[in-house]
Amino acid sequence: MFISAKRNTIRYFSLSVAILLAMPLGWGKISGLTNWVSPFIMLNSVFALKSLVWLNAIGVVILIATWFKKRFFCRYLCPTGCLLNKIPKLNKKANSQIFKNIPQIGKLLVIGSLTGALLDLPLFIFLDPVAIFNGFFSTLIQTTWLPMIASGSGLLLLLVIQWIWPGLWCKRICPLGGLQLWVSDLKGFMPGSEKPTDKANAGRRLFIGSTAGAAAAIAFPFIVKGKEANIIRPPASVNPIDFYALCTRCGSCLKACPTKILKQDTRFGAGLLTPEVKFETGYCLETCNACSVVCPSGAITLFDLDAKPQLVMGKAVLKTADCLLSFQKECDRCKVVCAYKAVLINPKNNESLVLPEIDPVKCVGCGACKIVCPKNCISIN
Amino acid sequence: MKRRDFFTKAALAGGALALGNSCSRKIEKNAVNLTPSQKPGDSVAKFVTEPARSIPVFAETDVLVIGGGPAGTAAAIAASKTGASVWLIERYNHLGGLWTGGEVLPLLSTHAIDQNHKKKQVIYGLGDEMWQRLKKLGMSIDEVNPVIDPEAGKFVLEEMIISSGVKLLYHTYAANVIMEGNTIRGVFIENKSGRSAIMAKMVIDCSGDGDIFHFAGDNYDTMKYHIGLVHRLGNVDKINPNKPGFVKYPIGSRTPIPGVNWVNMHGKDDQDGTDALNLSNLQVEYRQQIWNDYKKMKQTPGYEQLYILDTASQLGVRMSRIVDGDYKLTLEDTMTYKNFKDVIGISGAWTPMLYKGKKVAIADRPLWQIPLRSLVPKKTEGLLVAGRCFCFEKELVEDTRIIGTCLITGHGAGIAAGTAIKNHQSVRDLDLKKLEKELLSQNVYLG
Question: Domain A314-380 belongs to what architecture?
Answer without folding.
Answer: 2-Layer Sandwich (3.30)
